[in-house]
From TrEMBL:
It comes from the Bacteria. It comes from Vibrio chaetopteri. Belongs to the LptE lipoprotein family. InterPro entries: LPS_assembly_LptE. Together with LptD, is involved in the assembly of lipopolysaccharide (LPS) at the surface of the outer membrane. Required for the proper assembly of LptD. Binds LPS and may serve as the LPS recognition site at the outer membrane. This is LPS-assembly lipoprotein LptE. The keyword Lipoprotein applies. HAMAP family: LPS_assembly_LptE.
Amino acid sequence: MFRFKQKLTQASFILLLSSLLTACGFQLRGEYSVPEDITAISVTSYDKYSKITRLVKEQLRLSQIELVTPNKDVPNIHIIGETITDRTLSLYQNTRAAEKEVVYEVNYRVTVPDLGAKDFTATMTRSYLDNPLSALAKSAERKLIEDEMREFSAQQMMRQMARLKTEIQEFEEKQHLEESNSNTQDNSPS
């Protein structure tokens, strides 16, 4: 009987906690989405076969956005370019680099018909130890870090696209207000 009450108490607590989290609008970190107005999008890139282009397309598919060919009536993501730079953070006593920081940056433009275009930058930074005694492992680690940074940048791009939601809403409100003002002026006696 005690175990039954304990299980019932736990279930009640979990139910209460989940209803509170749902009521406050809480979402898990991976739940950023592209605005609902965008159901289809085209992706263009400086290199259509690059890893970042493939990752962005994959993220869009996961968001259930249809990928279409570029058209003036369809929103577009244009990946302008990506850069990878590194700098030395610390040195060994013999002045060789001990720790390096890698900065990955992807620049892209989102164009939405009747709304305009906006440029974005997604930036990721990672650091790693640069052991001169393990050159092969060092290059493999560097490649893994760069791939991980590309993946996180593609996710960051989707989060930045989610911010377009407010800009689209502001544009629609402005357009609605302008239509209301023009209708009011047309109906006013002269």
